[in-house]
Structure prediction request, 187 residues.
Amino acid sequence: MPRWSRRRILLGGVLVVALAIGLAACGPDAPRTSERPSSRSSRSLVADSTTVPRMLATDDRFSALRAALDSTGLDSVLATRGPYTVFAPPNYAFAERPSGTIETMLSQDRGRLRTLLARHIVERRVSVDGPSESRPVITMGGDTLSLHAAPSGVSVDSAHILDGDIEAGNGLLHVVDAVLQTDNSQE
Prediction:
C-alpha cells in the first residue's frame, strides 16, 4: 500500500475518534419535562448550558446570587434535572440588605444563608403567567410564599416580579426586585 494511503487512513481514523469523543461529550439535549425524579439521589446532571446556574452565570446582574449559591452548595443542586423555579434577586437587591449582612453570612453563617436562599427556590415549575388570585408556593426550605397579582404586575410576597417565566432546561427563573425575607428574619 502506498505510504500516503496509510497516512490518509490514520488521519481518517483519528478524525473519526475525535468526532465520536466530541459528540459523546455533548450528550443528548435535556428533556423539557416537569416529571419529578423518584428521589434526590436519582437526580442527574443536566447539560451545563441549560441549567439554572448556567443561565445565572451568563447575566452579570446575578453575581451576588451566584456567589451565595456557590458558597452554600445550592448551585450543585440547581444543576440537576429538577425542575426548579428560582426567584432571582439581582445584585442591587442584595446591596439593599443591611450593611454586611450577606457578606457576614457568606463568610461566617452559611447555614443561615442557605436557609435564606432556599426561600427563593421551588422544587417544581411555577409559572407567573397571569395568576388572577393569590396562590401559595412551597419553597425548598419549607416556607410558604404567596404568589399574587398586584397593580404593578405579579408579586411574590412583598417582592415584585420584574421579568418572569425565563426558561431554563431544568426550570424557570423569575427576576424579583428584593431578597425574599425568611419568616424569622431579623436582618
About this structure: The beta strands are 84-88, 121-122, 135-138, 144-150, 153-156, 159-168, 171-176. Residues 14 and 20 are 10 Å apart (CA to CA). The chain has two domains: 1-30, 33-176.
